[in-house]
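Support case: user asked for a sample of complex input and structure output to validate their parser. Sending the pair below.
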Amino acid sequence: MKQILSFTLNGAPVDVIVTATETLLDVLREKLGVTGPKRGCDNGDCGTCTVLLDGEPVRSCLTIALTVAGRQVLTVEGLSPDGDLHPLQKAFHEHGAFQCGFCTPGMLMSAKALLDTNPNPSRVEIREYMSGNLCRCGSYEEVVEAIQAVAAGEYKE
Amino acid sequence: MKEVSYFAPTEVGEAAKLLAEYGDKAAILAGGTDLVAQLNYYEVKPAALLYIGGLGLDYVREKGGKLVIGAGTTTAHLLASDLVAQKFPVLAAAAATHGSPAVRTVATIGGNLGTASPAGDLIPPLMVMDADVILASVRGERAVPVKDFFTGPGETVRAADELIVEIQVPLLPGKAVFEKVGRRKAQVCSIVSAAVRLEMDGGVCKDARIVLGSMAPTPLRCPKAEGMLKGKAVDAALIAKCAAQAVAESDPIDDQRATAWYRQKAGTALVGRALTKAAGV
């Protein structure tokens, strides 16, 4: 059964034809050309598919696309709509918070959701909130430091 | 491959009619954190997806001395609920270990029950409070005690035309504690988990519940261990005997996470730790 799915993607309305079992990750990458969110495991463990749904972090690989009808989706592309890097992106860059970069889209979306709900997190709170994002290159410490730097106001928008 | 249908009803009655029609050919979709992984890997091939997110089942209320939780309540909402924090804190303790932050945004308590993994994190807290699962179908509603809900790994008494709609939790007295151990500190399926509730009068135990997770084909009550505590003065020696008895009532296996031997050791330690905290000794 194909249906038209209408939702808001990075602030702009989108209509796309989808099937019942297509995930949000499938639709973003393969139908809409939005390849920021990555397919790392397709079962919700690695976190590189993480996007924000109505401001909250979700696994796009586990989200049936039709369930986001009428809702707001934010991907890493939406962090720099005019081409200027988001404070988190600048901080990740300057702190070396990625190596291969494969986990980075998910890391950034989780980090944004964290700072939106808790602008001044402790180190423990950062590590707990980011615990669903795995990094095969081991850049965890730099990720924490980058988030701390943004929280401390070192990267004004 | 035949195309899969998608339904997003807005009333439980509509959902019940769809389940009456499709039975087990419909997969019930809530947060999808178990189901969609199975779909992605072609482990299940339903004829229809029945999305229950629009049924208004995300709520936590107090009613008649019970905490009444909609089956569609997300783990994140359980963690944000003042009622849960005040009246059922052991559920919040377990919820904090459930999946990962992004999974908790959408995963539901009804889904945790429906998936029926012996490792389900939200289940032991429900069992130590003698909670009931409410099932709805075109034939009406029925209540099943959570302790009687599971028949095997991934299997429950839910009929193919039934929907889990609510969980009712009597606000039983005493202190309840949840413990869990896994291969890492976060985003883990438990190797062993334990929940206990002790109603104490001075140093004497009036009533006890001990539940083990990941130690049997289903989450497991340990009645012989519970019986060792009732009416007795609780001290470290009794706790140690009781923890050993609880594990003796279980049936752990070797799997990709741990061996049965390790589970027995860890289970004894976890039950002992939980009882010590619950008894305040």
